[in-house]
Amino acid sequence: MIDIASLLANGIAALVGPSAIFFALLAIGLNVHFGYGGLLNFGQIGFALVGGYGMGIAVLYFGLPLWSGVLVGIVAGVVLALLLGIPTLRLRADYLAIVTIAAAEILRLITRSTSMTDFSGGTQGLTGYGGSFRQLSPFDNGRFYDFYGVRFLGQDLWAICVGWTVVGLSLILVFLLVRSPWGRVLKAIREDEDAVRALGKNVFVYKMQALVLGGVFGAVGGIVFALTTQSLTPDFYSPPQTFFAYAALIIGGAGRVFGPVIGSMIFWFVLSITDNFLRQATAGSNPLISFIDNQDVGAIRFVLVGVALAVLMAFRPQGIFGKRSEVLLDAR
Amino acid sequence: MRPVGPVRSPDGARPDNSGFTRPVAGLLRAVLGALIAIAALTGLAAPALATQQPPHGTSSQPAPPEQPGLPVSGTLRNVDGTLLSGVRVQALDASGQQVASTTSNTGGRWELTVPTPGQYTFRIDRQSLPPGVTVLQGEVVRDVAPGTLSLVVFRFGAQRAGLQTSASATALRVLVDGIRFGLVIGITGVGLSLIFGTTGLTNFAHGELVTIGAVLAWTLNVTFGLQLIWATLLAIVAGAALGAATDLAIWRPMRRRRAGLIAQLVISIGLALALRYLVLIYFGGRSESFADYTNQVERNYGFISITDKDLATIVISLAVLVGVALLLQRTRIGKAMRAVADNRDLAASSGINVERVVLFVWILAGALAALGGVLFGLSELGGTVQYEMGFNLLLLMFAGVILGGLGTAYGALLGCLVVGVLVQVSAQVIPVDLKYLGGLAVLIVILVIRPQGLLGSRARIG
Q: Cα A9 from chain centroid?
């Protein structure tokens, strides 16, 4: 039968776990793009990919130390943002959406291509670039640490601590930026681009800066996650992950500093509990729910996220904490 | 969509019909014409299937795991599809010593056993080949491991004469491949572009309409044993119904609530995600083959050789697209579609029922997407259906539609053709698993050079 204690323990582990950190960082980036700047970036996972792979390839292929690999990953995020922004930021919002989703898919196809096996590891991906990250860990990497029934492996605990530190620093940066004149101009661009242009601001440059900044958060997310999992597999970086990040952002509230983080935590808490519940309820010889096959539970998560995204956007686009008037809903 | 001809006043258009039934009749006529074309064409192609083989005939033999030695097997099939019997196949170990040999049976099938796991060379004895049969690849090196099914495929036939003699033959072949693919992208892309033109919605769920059409046809074809042509026809009807249903259930209420376009875009993405994984749950993650037209042989038409299904794909697509063009150009509902796309308010104030026009656009787009899905699976994916096929096609659709001009119907066609040719041409140069890249790269290039697309108007791009 259903083991509620383990459901809760898993849910709380997911609430603070590596996935919540990863998607919080992706969603912080999307918050800068969509929440403040009104830019529709649907290829945020591509930024995570260039971040993670930039680091992995720099370390494994070019033999750089890990810290410079991290820098390479961040620079890769900046370059990708510039490449995507130059053709699309002068156009209507949905062009950016199409180009970014296409670019993310291009990047995934390139990294998994057999012709790139020497470089990016092909479909096998990359491992063994982040050993020095684990050596820095103050915890016993192989030991389980128990917090009132919620257990973390030492190496994951280290990654979680680093991850939340990065999330905290990112939030402080976003908090300061959106209260600066720069942030006010960005929000004004979201509300009325032409009015800002009439005031003599270079809208294109502001949008580009926002795209780069949000892209860097995505790349940092990719780096942190790659250091947590210690492996890079190309098919993880598929388009639905961006939609997950959007779902997290919209749950928490776009255009709010803490929105993406809270949204990501709630998102993974709910997803983990429903996932575990369905797995338990469909397992065994006499399952509680018989019309769902145990193997299909993984796919049901995507269906739920898709429905949730559509329903939220239709009925409560401001999420839990957002202001409806601050959510960009209409393209020019 | 830009009006390609002047939108004539309703009274001057066609006085032979009247009232509500006219647009319906026009649409029906166009769809029916297309269907008859399909039926006729694929009917003609049927005799060519005589040499067809069951798709997985060679792989269905289970490997007996506990026997001494490891079984290795295969089927010898000549380029023209005939099965070769009485051909000796030898297995050599790493030192070049022959460890086993066998002779293929009347079904072309051979099976032998190697003593231990390891690397072996499998070789065809050329002396034993029937006269007139040449081997392209008669030696295969293969690691044989326990617990896996070891299949060895030899390739027969001379080096393609066309490839060696002229580059122009290759160019022509790639061009025809590209046009075929471009037409398939075009069939689905026209609907996407019309939806954008009439409602402003960038429909990310359009790929799922394609997948669902193909999966429905596959279900009717494989599970219920319906011939593929009839299965496709039913899938087209279902696709049209699905298009109408999404409009009535989701998009019309959204428009009524004056939901913003970005909100609608995100909703379409959520819908796409949900639908794609519902298809995955129903259909599974593997590529599944249609029951018909799976293993066709190319026919030589002098200047080009092409399989019947590819030829049929080209002709059907052309016929359907001409039908769509006629619909837009000649029928009342088509003219109304162009009028709404050009200026929604003006169209509404001149008495066009905009919501009904949009519903027809969705019906047309759904039907075209379902047909496009079957043709895409049949021609480009080698007769198979797969749950992500629509999403893969969607990005190429966007590339083609933006290249032609988002919102235009004829521009979408042109752009999709260019993308199709580009994808096939680029596959000659870059690795095959990257071949969709060329199509997506054109998307970025066109936005830098001419963001309104080839046939689009400047006012739309923002």
A: 23
* Same domain assignment for residues B16 and B76: no
Same domain, B36 and B80: no
Please give the pLDDT value at position B270: 93
- Which residues 229-248 of A have a C-beta within 8 angstroms of B? 239-240, 243, 246-247
Contact B419, B411 (CB under 8 A): no
**Cα–Cα distance between B233 and B367 in angstroms, integer?**
9
CA distance B219 to chain A (A): 19
Where do the DSSP E strands lie in B297-389?
A: 299-300, 305-306, 384-385
B143 and B200 share one domain: no
3-state secondary structure of A145: strand
Whether A94 sits inside 8 A of B261 (CB atoms) is yes
Same domain as B137, residue B251? no
| Token couple for B192 | 């996407």
Chain B residues in contact with A118 by the CB 8 A cut-off are none
Pull the structure tokens for residue B219: 């279900």
Residue A114 neighbours by CB distance under 10 Å? 11
pLDDT tens-digit readout, A264-316: 999 999 999 988 888 888 877 777 777 777 778 888 888 999 999 999 988 88
Whether residue B281 and residue A102 make contact (CB cut-off 8 A), yes or no, is: no
* B155-181 pLDDT, tens digit each: 776 555 444 457 777 888 889 989 999
pLDDT in tens, B407-425: 777 888 889 999 999 888 8
- pTM value is 0.76
Which residues of B sit within 8 Å Cβ distance of A? 200, 202, 254, 259-263, 265-267, 269-278, 280-281, 391, 395, 398-399, 402, 430-431, 433-434, 436-437, 440-441, 443-444, 447-448, 451, 460-462
Q: CA–CA separation, B189 vs B167, rounded Å?
A: 32
The secondary structure of A215-246 as a DSSP string is HHHHHHHHHHHHHHHSEE-GGGS-HHHHHHHH
For chain B, the average pLDDT equals: 79
User: Which of A34, A303, A305, A324 to mutate to test binding with chain B, by most B CBs within 10 Å of its CB?
Assistant: A303
Count the neighbouring beta carbons within 10 Å of the beta carbon of residue A68: 13
Q: Are B272 and A306 inside 8 Å of each other by CB?
A: yes
Residue (of B179, B176, B175, B182) closest to B399 by Cα position: B182
Residue B97 sits in a domain of what CATH number? Answer: 2.60.40.10
Helix (H) or strand (E) holding B150: strand B150-151
Residue B90 lies in a domain: yes
CATH of the domain at B324: 1.10.3470
CB contact, 8 Å: A86 with chain B? yes
**Domain range spanning residue B435?**
10-51+165-460
| Closest residue in chain B to residue A293, using alpha carbons only | B281
Q: 3-state class of B66 per DSSP?
A: coil
Give the max Cα distance, chain B: 87
Looking at the complex, report in whole angstroms how far the Cα of residue B368 sits from the nearest Cα belonging to chain A.
22
Residue type, B231: A
My answer on whether B219 and B312 are in the same domain is: yes
CB B442 within 8 A of CB B418: yes
Q: In terms of C-beta density within 10 A (0-12 exposed, 13-18 middle, 19 or more buried), how is residue B10 classed?
A: middle
* Helix, strand, or coil (residue B307): coil
Are B110 and B184 in a shared domain? no
State pLDDT tens for residues A225-249. Answer: 999 999 999 989 998 899 999 999 9
State how far the Cα of A3 lies from the Cα of A174, in Å rounded to an integer: 40
Cβ pair B277:A306 closer than 8 A: yes
Q: Is the dihedral of CA A245, A250, A255, A260 positive or negative?
A: negative
Pairing of strands B150-151, B70-75: parallel
* B89 and B215 housed in the same domain: no
- Is B429 domain-assigned? yes
